[in-house]
């Protein structure tokens, strides 16, 4: 599949395979090196990449000529190994229908083209809903680019808790069969007010978007009937 960047550059989009592992790990190293706050990205090991690449069509990449400039990886965890389904209250019988949005990397020279969200939408649009229903992901508060991406994909915040050895993370979910009901309440909370967000999440509220204020960011939470 072809895609055109904002400057008119034509790039190629395709699923990645085990043969692409060297350029995948190379791009991840470039992205990590460029990060100021390295805690905002949970990198994958070669073994973890190979686990994803062992299954067909779970990893999508964008190439400028032969150069990998972006990739997005998903994972069918089988038994909800990271506990994200359990965190948001899914039943064990639903675990086989889960997909994790595992990691997204875009080369620093190609940012500003919306590639992260483009790859996510392209992959989701090709997803067979007979096989999967729930797309789950974790994002650090104030990782603005990644938060915007998840909301753009129609994902919503269902939990805010410590993961990965004590790192605070939002837990997002997109239910491919969800039908939003009538909103009965709405509240806007500062993103750095962890306790208040956790209070409303525990009361059944869901984070549906974020809003930029004068000095900080806010998350809008709603409760459905």
Q: Describe it for me?
A:
The protein has 225 residues and is of the alpha+beta class. Helices cover 24% and strands 35% of the residues. It has six helices and eleven strands. The chain has helices at 21-34, 46-53, 84-87, 115-125, 144-152, 194-202; strands at residues 2-4, 10-15, 59-64, 67-75, 98-106, 134-139, 156-163, 167-175, 183-190, 206-212, 217-224. Strands 1-2-3-4-5-6-8-7 form an eight-stranded mixed beta sheet, with helices on both faces. A three-stranded antiparallel beta sheet has the order 9-11-10. The mean pLDDT is 92.
Shape: globular
Q: Report on the biggest sheet.
A: 8 strands, mixed
What gap, in angstroms, lies between the N and C termini?
42 Å
Radius of gyration: 18 Å
- Lateral strand order in the biggest sheet: 1-2-3-4-5-6-8-7
Could you estimate the helical fraction of the residues in percent? 10-25%
Mean pLDDT: 92
Low-pLDDT runs of 5+ residues are: none
Tally the beta strands.
11
Find the structural class using helix and strand composition.
Answer: alpha+beta
Count of helical regions: 6
Question: Can you write the helix and strand succession as a string?
Answer: EEHHEEHEHEHEEEHEE
Strand content: 35-45%
Task: Using brief descriptors, characterize the structure shown.
225 residues, alpha+beta, eight-stranded mixed beta sheet, three-stranded antiparallel beta sheet, 6 helices
Helix-strand blueprint:
Layout: E1 2-4, E2 10-15, H1 21-34, H2 46-53, E3 59-64, E4 67-75, H3 84-87, E5 98-106, H4 115-125, E6 134-139, H5 144-152, E7 156-163, E8 167-175, E9 183-190, H6 194-202, E10 206-212, E11 217-224
Parallel strand pairs: 5-6
Antiparallel strand pairs: 1-2, 2-3, 3-4, 4-5, 6-8, 7-8, 9-11, 10-11
